[in-house]
Amino acid sequence: MITQPQTIPAPDPYEERLRVQTARLLAYRDDGPLVTLLRDKVGPGLPPVPATLAALLAIIAMAVTGMLVDGPILLVPVLIMIVLVLPTAARDHLGKLDWLAPPLIRGTEFLTIILIGLAADAPKWLLYVLIYVIGYHTYDTVYRTRQSIWPAPWVFRAGLGWELRLLLIGAGAALGVLTWVLAALTLYLGVLFAVESVTSWVGLDKQTALAQAGDDLEASPEEAQEQATGEAEQT
To answer: Tens of pLDDT along 188-212?
Structure first.
């Protein structure tokens, strides 16, 4: 009996675009292992933009009213952000304004680091370097995904995510050892993100070169001569 070959239906372009959009926004959030663990346990979750804005405004209010002083109170902004922002990870991020969630999360993370660091009298240059390292990781993630090159999932887990980074900083400030925590976190994240980024891009360049070499080998002598002639004329 002759059987007809099974054809795999092509994915719907609209659904594929939504899938890629969701994957990109979730990657830009830079959620860590704690968010990944609890994402499926928070029910439908909270709307990303309003919840993140509420966390940002609450933290700003604490700073403006002078509540952020050295001591255990510095853990409160971190807890506010985790309580309000962590449940937003359960959403699909397909709302019209949900693209604002990742920059709001990153901005709130940076503001919280600065406010806690200043209140605990941590070295300002160390705060700057830590923010630079996290910012580089964010830029690298955005640039890669726009080239359809996705960072490995373990990078986000090893990078601790915004939630564990803030928990470590808040705990360090509450215990009076923030400078040491900042130094260790900056060194760890700097080495991790730099090495992973460099090795990934170098590996990609090698794959591109091998693919180009394979295409050249498959070309006929006439095609190779025509390509060489065209390149010579352009120069």
So the answer is: 999 999 999 888 878 665 555 444 4
96, amino acid identity: K
Read off the tokens for 184: 């260790």
Mean pLDDT, rounded, for 207-228 = 48
Whole-angstrom distance, CA of residue 205 vs CA of residue 149:
12
Share of the chain above pLDDT 90, in %: 59
- Whether 23 shows a pLDDT value over 60: the answer reads yes
Indicate the pTM of the whole model: 0.80
> What type of residue sits at position 188?
Y
For 175-188, give one letter per residue: b (16+ CB within 10 A) or e.
eeebbebbeebbee
Count CA atoms closer than 13 A to 129's CA, side-chain side.
16
DSSP letter at 40 equals G
Q: Which residue type does 134 have?
A: I
The residue with tokens 């010579």 is 232
Nearest to 100 by CA among 31, 20, 29: 29
Say if residues 23 and 146 touch (Cβ distance below 8 Å).
no
